[in-house]
Amino acid sequence: MCGLVLVLAAIQSVYGVGLLVFGTPVLLLLGLPFPEVLAYLLPCSIAISTLQVADGGLSLEPIRRKLLTFTAPAVLLGTFLILVVLKHKIDMRPIVGGMLVVTAVLRLLGPLRQRMQSFVRARLSPLLVLLGLIHGVSNLGGGVLTLIVSSVYDDKRSVRRHIAFGYGLMALIQITVLFLTTSVHLDLALWLVLPVLAVLSYVVVGTRVFTRIGEPMYQSSLTALIGIFGILLLVST
């Protein structure tokens, strides 16, 4: 788990997502219960998102206000449903995975990519509600968040800082609901060490890679990352 967090924290340091989207299916496949997966990964994700938001600025821009207005309540509802009502018995991986594979293909095709961006911008509010519900019930909203933010912004710094804001906001809501509603059995030492490793990976690897990667390479690798998210979710179903 320490090795997994180090690798995925480096990915999240560059793109704003990674720990939850990759880490959740891996740990579920290894046999950890969903509440424990949340409890171990969420603090790591929150630590990195906090650093990225602090680095990018704390101003409450329009998309951040929409995330607070539309996504936050939906995450709260989705997390409560999956932990308390549905008892972790829903699998969103094939739905989210298929959607992300299609998104990656559309991003590769210029004219279709522009149409996709126009579609997202025109329907931003309902898509942000959908994002919150998906993330709340599955912990797999990172790819959808990436799709939405990268359709609104084009430069890598704006993309990463707004993804980090949304990811951190959703994680804070999830961890609050988790510890208020569920009894989770954790290895305390591991629980404390993992966020430290995540921050270490961010400082040593992630920030350097993000600074050196050029804009075209960033966008291309972001498209690849969305596609990889989708494929991994489909094959892990």
Could you walk me through the main structural features you see in this protein, from its secondary elements to its overall organization?
By secondary structure, the protein is mainly α. It has one domain (2-235). 84% of the residues lie in helices and 0% in strands. The chain is built from 11 helices and no strands. The chain has helices spanning 2-15, 19-29, 34-56, 62-85, 93-108, 110-122, 124-138, 142-152, 156-181, 188-212, 215-235. The longest helix is centred in the C-terminal third of the chain and has 26 residues, at 156-181. The mean pLDDT is 87.
How far apart the termini lie comes to 21 Å
Largest sheet: none
What does the average pLDDT come to? 87
Low-confidence stretches: none
Secondary structure tally, helices: 11
Tell how many strands the DSSP assignment holds.
Answer: 0
Envelope shape = globular
In terms of DSSP E residues, the strand content is under 5%
Query: Over the alpha carbons, how many angstroms does the gyration radius reach?
Result: 16 Å
Helical content class: over 70%
Derived structural class: mainly alpha
Short structural summary:
Helix content is 84%, strand content 0%.
